[in-house]
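so im writing up the methods section and need the Leucine-rich repeat-containing N-terminal plant-type domain-containing protein record in one place, dumping it here so i stop losing it
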Amino acid sequence: MGVNNMNHLQAKPFAAKWRVNLIRYYDLMEELWGADCATGHMARTACQARRNISTQSLKVDLNDDVDYILEEQSFDPGFDTTYRSPPHMDSYSPSDSTQSVSSATSGGTGGTSSSQGTKRKSPMVDVMDAHFDKLTTKLDVFTDYLGQGNALTQKLFDIGERQVLAIERRNEIINKQVNVMRQTSTFQHSESDIWDMYGLRFNTYKKNNFEGEKRKTSCHLRGRRSSEATINRRCIKSDTGTLCIPSERETLLKLKRDLSDPSNRLSSWNNASENSNCCEWVGVVCNNVTAHVAELHLNTAPYISDDYLFDEGLFDEYFEAFRRSELGGKINPCLADLKHLNYLDLSWNLFRGQGMPVFLWTMTSLTHMDLSYSGFYGKIPPQIGNLSNLVYLDLRQAAYGSIIPSQIGNLSDLRHLTLEGRGSGFAENVDWLPRLSKLEYLFLEGATLSEAWIHAFHALPSLTNLNLIDCLLPLCYSQPSLLNFSSLLTLDVSFANYSFVPKWIFGLTKLVSLRLIDNNIQGPILDDIQNLTLLQNLDLSENSFTSSIPVFLGNLTSLVELDLSGNQLEGAIPTFLGNLTLLVELDLSYNQLEGKIPTSLNNLCNLRKINFSYLKLNQQINEILQILSNGLIILLVRSSQVSGNLTNQIGDFNNIVALDFSNNSIDGSLPKSFKKLSSLKYLNLSNNQFSGNPFDSLRSLSSLSHLSIDDNHFQGVVKEDDFASFTSLTEFYAGGNNFTLKVGHNWHLSSKLTWLDMKEWQLGPNFPSWIQSQNKLKYLEMSNAGIFDSIPIWFWETSSDAYFVNLSHNHIHGELGTTLRHPISIMNVHLSKNHLRGKLPHLSENVVWLDLSSNSFSGSMNDFLCKNQDMNHLNVLNLASNNLSGEIPDCWMKWLCLVDINLQSNHFFGKIPPSMGFLFELQSLQVRNNSLSGIFSTSFKNNRELMFLDFGENNLSGTIPLWVGERFIKLRILCLRSNNFSGHIPNKICDMSHLQVLDLAHNNLSGNIPNCLNHLNAMTLMNRSTTLIIYTSSYPSRTKYLDSELASALLWLKGRVDEYKTILGLVTNIDLSNNKLSGEIPTGITNLNGLIFLNLSHNQLTGHIPYSIGDMRSLTSIDFSRNQLFGEIPPTISKLSFLNMLDLSNNHLKGKIPTGTQLQTFDASSFVGNNLCGPPLTVNCSSNGKIRSYYHKHKGSHRQNVKWFFVSMTFGFIVGFWIVVGPLFICRSWRYAYYDFLDERKTRKREIRRYDVIVRSGLD
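--- predicted struct ---
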């Protein structure tokens, strides 16, 4: 094997096993070959043994895995086969017959005779002559025995010959595989590599646990798209002529009885006469010579093919099958009775709650043991040292947190070792490691490593692969010059989460692969990397590297894979990347790089995978395609500010498998040359400005499994023929366009979809009947699809296994109860904004999300809420805007998983049920716009997770409890408006530092506004998240499984109510209007520089408007109307450049309205009812220049001016009253005259009225 081949193999995690096998194989064959050739054992004749001294007599099983050592078969050939050494010359007897010697050593009377490398001491020549005659006589007898033959001997000899040929052929195959792997190595990557390139990261379980395991296992999932995806275990079987040993068959049956096997994968393990040969059972491998059980493959293999990488639906199908196939139960100790077992794989099962079986450490015949992710737990016992034949050992998670015993150093033949643990004790002992001199692959996860470990690594002469994921390395190494990892080729120290790179790493000049993923390394990319000139794989992704891409990377011309994604690299994409002509994979995504892709990348003819997503390219799409090699198989340019339109040039990329141009500004119609992309499996063009009918160009792409064209300007009529070739399609996202589907009533899709998004299509008016054939659906989005029909009965059966169904914003009518034969079992159900009526449906325990809002459901909630006896997992319940009535039932303790409840705008009355206080996970509760009464219940003290509480528009009374601020420390929205709350606003409300909306309007609150409002820290932040997130259980969405939702709220702002959702996190509001609050506006409120809406109108507030109101730069709306504020409008108010609503009317303000860009644009009604002048009022301020300004004299003074206007008005009223009334009291004649005048006026008025009536009646 060439050096390059070996280097490449050793750079891959799975290469270690191949190399281990080859070494062990050659060592074994050399030993057996030499021994048989030296002795001529089992030759037909002695003459043949001398003549064909190289003839083998090997016992090798064609079906044997090379991971275990072959065994000798015991048999009786019919004669004495004991090997007798040549007689010593001291035992020579003259009476013995003499013999002739066929050959003797020259040069003396003694020496050595060599036979195929095995040396024996030769007798003296005279001794050989003396025995020659005797040997000749005996040889005739011996020849007769051999001539008669022995059937077993002849069979064994034939087998040996066949095995030698088979071994030679196997060597050729292995060498060919190595060459193929070298030639196609740049095309072979794990599923996590591909998902990383998509930016669609798996969760930790899928990413870390699956990576690498799929290569090791021999079990594959057949890519069947049927209802039952099955895992096909490689059940290595012996030749049909091999019959298992009965005692071992009974042992296997005992083993099976204690296992749980939900998928019945061990169904072949039975005593039936037609299947009694255990060597043919699933997962069992027998030695074809000895018939002993040699291997047990009972792992549940997480193998993932390339199909799953581009098909989330198919992966979900596989994953479900994988979980169903996991074995459980317990391992019967009878397993130890299999004395010849050398291969045991129990990985990826569910033996939960069990320690590692003790008897395993007595099975000394084992050469391969894999207990990874099997569910076992516990410490690694010292008895592990008994397994001295082990070559492969994987205890990931099985020995989680265990201390590594020193006895593991006794495994001197170990070549592959994988351990995982946490805590300082896990790796405190390192003395055992240097004794593993043959170790080639070492995987340690989660260990805290000292300098002693670095020395120990240095002492492993055969170490080629070192994986230290999530390990903490020493901050510095005192003697890096002493390190000489002469054999180390690959190093992975990812996920360690430290901000440095150990300097000793850069002394490993023979490294071929270096991974430093997600270590929070900051600053520029280290220059020392340029010392690693042999690097083929460099992965520095998910760190915090800044600055530009360094020039020295252009000198690492051996690079095949380069990943710099997920950093903060700036500047342009450098031209020197064109020097890396061997580059196959390049990932620069998720950086701050900007500018066009350099034309030098045209030199990269070997490039196959590119990810330029989330950059600032500002480039035309056709320019990009002209630069890049048309040999690409993956091209991802998502969200990178790409524009222009696609031309027929796209057809030149006929090897492309995955293409993602989503979230850009590409327009125009799709070119016809898309038809040439026959290998295309994944196509994502969503969120662009494409137009026309895409199916004219895409309908012939029969290999497509994922198609995303949603949220564009596509339009047109889609017919049956447009889907005819999509036989492999499993995921179809086409919502947000203007399509009309016209198909026959009996039409069915030729593919089985798992994810389907057709929102805003015209699918109606009838409910689409073709959905009935799609029984694989996991995700169905058909909202706003123009459906004017009821939901058919078959729909609930077809979609019973779905995760997500959205039929909202249609015109679906009818009663759900008439179409449901069983409780709803879909995990997420969205039927809002339809015309459904009747009682609420029953739910199964699977439902996590139920949205029936804006329908016409009626009646009580009692049956729905209280008669369900199952354990419910419902997280979100939205029944808003229906016709539900009665009291809210008091049985919420059965729904403990609820995090979001919305019952607003119904007809509920009575008290809020105390059992809601048992909902400890509750984060959002909305019951506004009902007729609820009573007080703020103390049972809500337990709801410490609340972030959103809306009791508005009810008839609640009493005071706001003091404990609200103490218990609701996470509250972000508090709405109690339009109730009958009274008393003071508690100061404890200021302790809610996350509060961003405080709405207490339209109550009977009195007293002063709390002076501590400046403690509401969330209103002091000017830059916040745009969304308010409520965390729920995982649910499916377009980007796989999510664990959160965006909260929505109805907020009264600027005199009207609106729903806020996507920007709810930005809204900050204080509304205390329409109460009986008094006192001054607290100055501290002006510290809330993040406050947007402030309404204190319709109260009894006095004093001045705070001078520092201009510091509240985020304010867009101020309403201080109908109070008793006085003084001048502070001039700083003109600094509020975002102000678009202002109402200071009906106060006692005076003086000139400050001049500013905003203030003069408001209507005059904003200032009426005061003593103000200046624009926008028509009152002239010519005399105001002499008025002494309060704000200009003393900004912070609280001196009260005398209100001379009111004093003079009162005095004038008193004087005028007595001038008119006084004489009437003093002079009687004046009094009588005044009364006569009044009588005369009254009589005259009555006559005029009578005359008017007569005239009107005459006219009639």
